[in-house]
Specification:
This protein is of the alpha+beta class. The chain has one domain: Immunoglobulin-like (Sandwich). The protein has helices spanning about 1-15, 20-45, 190-195, 210-230; strands at about 55-60, 75-80, 90-95, 105-110, 115-120, 140-145, 150-160, 170-175, 200-205, 205-210. Strands 1, 2, 3, 4, 6, 7, 8, 9 and 10 form a nine-stranded antiparallel sheet that branches. A hairpin with a 6-residue loop joins strand 2 (about 75-80) and strand 3 (about 90-95). The longest helix is centred in the N-terminal third of the chain and has 26 residues, at about 20-45. The structure holds copper (II) ion and zinc ion. It comes from Desmodus rotundus (Vampire bat). It is an enzyme of class 1 (oxidoreductase). Its EC number is 1.15.1.1. Destroys radicals which are normally produced within the cells and which are toxic to biological systems. Protect the extracellular space from toxic effect of reactive oxygen intermediates by converting superoxide radicals into hydrogen peroxide and oxygen.
Length: about 230
Amino acid sequence: MLALLCASLFLVACASDASLSTEEQIRDMHAKVTEIWQEVTGRRAADRGQDAALHAICQVRPSASLDAEKPQVTGFVLFRQPVPGAQLEAFFNLEGFPPEANGTKHAIHVHQFGDLSQGCESTGPHYNPLAVQHPQHPGDFGNFAVRDGGIWKYRSGLVASLSGPHSIVGRAVVVHEGEDDLGRGGNAASLENGNAGRRLACCVVGLCGPAPWARQAQERRKRRRENECKTA
Ligand SMILES: [Cu+2]
Ligand SMILES: [Zn+2]
């Protein structure tokens, strides 16, 4: 497997177009290697009759450097990647927002470091492996509306990855006090971090087994059934 990946890397490197900038070549190479990896790991899992999905969990805690009167947000974020290199699905389950926060929107991003030694402040800037502007970072998950003091949201089609050179495993998920302006704020910070304000809570992404995702999927089915009953 490793030999195949190395040989593929060599071929990809040889085939790179000399007219492209180094950054473009790296981006190009990354896309090709991801594609090869996805194919190889997917095929191996299929041969063994296994599910190739990767799972990760992030246990959200209030930032240690946060003032006591700020919302104390807790909960978890789950990630599932059907095969390495594929788009991510994620599940956000947060609570601890005050009643007056209902209807407000909060930005959630992946930040560069899984370092919580100074609360969420030590997680660094947005994780930005391809040196692009906000909101094109792989962990720019956008805004999440608070309902009943919490956030309970499933998202799919996310470009972050749990594998490969740009894996978010070991990095931080940060929940912000404010809304993400999605790069439309008209200042430099908008193109770096969306002017999303203070860091309320955060966690470090770690790999896990399929059980937490399975439990959450069951809970989602249950809630969907309950909603159907209410509206019927
Ligand atoms: Cu952020
Ligand atoms: Zn960003």
